[in-house]
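INTERNAL AUDIT FORM
Audit reference: QA-55
Scope: verify that the stored structure record matches its stored sequence.
Auditor: D.O.
Record contents follow.
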Amino acid sequence: MFTPIQKIPLTKLLTLSHNKLLNDVINTLKKFDLDAMRLKDSLDMLMQLKPQLKKLEVSHGKHPLTKEMKVKEERRLKLCGIISTKMQLHMRADAVGERKAVKLTQHIVNRFIVGIRKNNQDVISELIIRFFRQIDEEKELQEAFAELGFQTYLDELRDVNVTHWNMFMERNRSVSKRIKWEDKLIVKKNCQAVLRNVFDTIELKQMLYPDIDYNHLIDLLNGILVRFNKNINTRETYNKKRAEQTEQQVHILSVDGKETGSVVIDEKPKKKKKVKQTTEKVPKKKPNTPHLKESKTQKQESEVSGLLNILKLPPGPKI
């Protein structure tokens, strides 16, 4: 008697579930005499696939250096703001002894530092690097900034920017060693294809060799597949409920018109259906115009009487 193998959506398996399912199938097959059942090749295919599944690792999430880099990014923007503001104060003060130094430093600050916040982090890093490169190339600029009291802020800005750049490069080197998403996808597709091939092969062998009993093997495999299918269905049900919850409205509580910051999630208010009020239409009464009817009747009667009078006239003389 032919016993089919349970069909499950292998494409919906979680990343780590591929390794678990593959090992369960391999361990199940090893319990039988595969040479007698002509399934040795199927086990070999599964075993060859095992080394590739090492690439299916848990997602790394955010890199540990990302949070530290964020702190450095905020600090260097704050320092740029201090330098920009300090330069504006010197310009407004217009002190006679500082005019030459202000004239030398104003242009470079306006060029590289003023409005730097509007750029992305990569551009900010490059602008600060070029800012210090120009200062290092001109001794007069270094003396002018020192004269105006910028040295403390410049030293810290340089140190913060260098530290941020080193963190950025270290993070890139670390991330580049991770398994790429495309490689994981290829491994998962290969695993799914091999599993389908093995299941189809077992069903085919069952039909080709009816004298060999495959029922016990198929029952064990079906038990495994039913369990994985149940996990898939449970996860989909949970995701569906979670998606429905995100559609709820969020209301911010307020006291005396000020937001308290507490949030209450409530269902969307149901729109009330408008009930059409049925009102009986009262037919409009036509105005009574008896004088019009009488005049019309009188006119008809006068016309008839006129005809009758004509008929009653005596015949005229013959000509």
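Auditor finding: record pair retrieved intact. The mean pLDDT is 81.
Action required: none
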